[in-house]
Amino acid sequence: MTKLEAARAFERRAAARIPAADRPGFHLTPPVGWMNDPNGFCFYHGAYHLFFQYYPYDTVWGPMHWGHATSADLLHWTYLPCALAPDTDADAAGCFSGSAAPLPDGRLLLMYTGVQPAGADGRQAQMQCIAVGDGLDFEKDPQNPVIPAGLLPEGFGTADFRDPKVWRENGAYYCVAACRHAQDQGSILLFESPDARRWQFVTVLDSSRDRLGKMWECPDFFALGDTRVLLISPQEVCADENGELHPGDATAALLGRYDPVTHAFDRRKVQAVDDGLDFYAPQTALAPDGRRILIGWMQCWATTGQAPRPHPWYGRMSLPRELFLRDGRLCQRPVREIETLWQAETRLAGITVEARTALPGIRGRSLDLNVTVDADASPACRRFALRFAEGGGLFAEIRCDLALGELVFDRSRCGSRRDIPHIRRIRAVPHSGKLTLRLILDKDCAELFVNDGERVLSVLVDAPETAQGISFAAFGGPVRLDVVQHVLRA
Ligand code: FRU
Predict the structure, then answer these.
(1) In principle, which of 205, 265, 296, 456 could form an S-S bond with 318, CB 3.0–4.6 Å?
(2) Which mutation among 110, 111, 163 tests ligand 1's pocket best, with the greatest number of atoms within 8 A of CB?
(3) Rounded CA gap, 57 and 61, in Å?
(4) pLDDT (tens digit, 9 = 90+) per residue, 437-487?
(5) Global pTM?
(6) pLDDT higher than threshold 70 for residue 206
(7) Which segments of the chain belong to CATH 2.60.120.560?
(8) CATH code of the domain made up of 338-488
(9) Topology annotation, domain 3-334
(10) Residue ranges, CATH 2.115.10.20, the chain
């Protein structure tokens, strides 16, 4: 049996033993074992395909395979057999992150990082490989790696060279890949090919220059209107003075202009993609209706280590989101398909809250909850707090300081015993006197969209599913709220 056949046989048997109730309702989890980054996210032959970093045999990171799932609506996923296993000389130590692009002949191209075991220098070598298939079975190219060490420009090496994002444009193939430079640190390299097999280096699109992390992972590069977006997952970020990126492993969108002739990228702005405690390595796909859809790993390296493993699977994807620009900022909304999950609706308009209170009908852990805080009509209110996943003395809390324009997401009272970050603080200023919070809950997954997607926080909460309570409180003076809740059908 080959490594791939073994993985497929194992995941089939193991996944069949896991009841659907042990998974979130509409967030993708691995069939069994470990999952990290989304890979190969694309629309192909009438369905969305999502691959992912995958180690089926344990709930911790191991030699990387590519898992595979497909969906018609980005919410209900069907597992397909494991797509890639580390089974050739070019990728014997792992098939790391990458991407997919439909080919003109109807087949699907996968481009991924092949990791070769450490040599005499003790360092693994990472180079870019391809595999082509029918959307189910993929054949690796015998010439892998198709982007070998020899194509790297001066100052770059293969110890950190990974995560190709490939696309087709004007009859040619392009790919961006992350690479570490001796001085400039995290950098994104652009390559070009006539056929996705013969590649050449084009340019260094952008670099950290030691200001934006030490290594950049998982790039994506696409147009959104007139703006060009370079997504990166920078490691070892030192938070800057405006607090846009949090320290450690962050996610960032570099917004700018791109000249397709000279291939120069002119970065004009840096912003966070997701400020949550559990979000990393996002990747986008273009939907047939033109929407740019983003999905991320709803987890991050800093918090996975000693995390409890209550299930035979570990790791999940975020809710897919639609990207758009507003006032020069990259914003996100949950994909509109989520409305197909809407069930019972509760609407409470013009409520006044002061002492902590629960509101009639507002509770649950599978919800699309919209709260509009009318700051103008609440002049004495200094702080507003929303608790959820509340019960048995546990809760998660969102606190908004309306005067300061600050929002704190605090999951420290959810029952965790681990010494990891539990609190994140972001800027959140009312617009035209209103602050809007949209909180999507799916069991232990919580995603908060502030001011219609201006900021997003993806956070996992440990409180057990029996903690279904939601309550509201105001400090300093009463707060005026509108609340709309839809129960979500899993
Ligand atoms: C990001 C990452 C990628 C790499 C993969 C390995 O989370 O470190 O850079 O390809 O995970 O699983």
Answers:
(1) 296
(2) 163
(3) 9
(4) 999 999 999 999 999 999 999 999 999 999 999 999 999 999 999 999 999
(5) 0.97
(6) yes
(7) 338-488
(8) 2.60.120.560
(9) Tachylectin-2; Chain A (2.115.10)
(10) 3-334
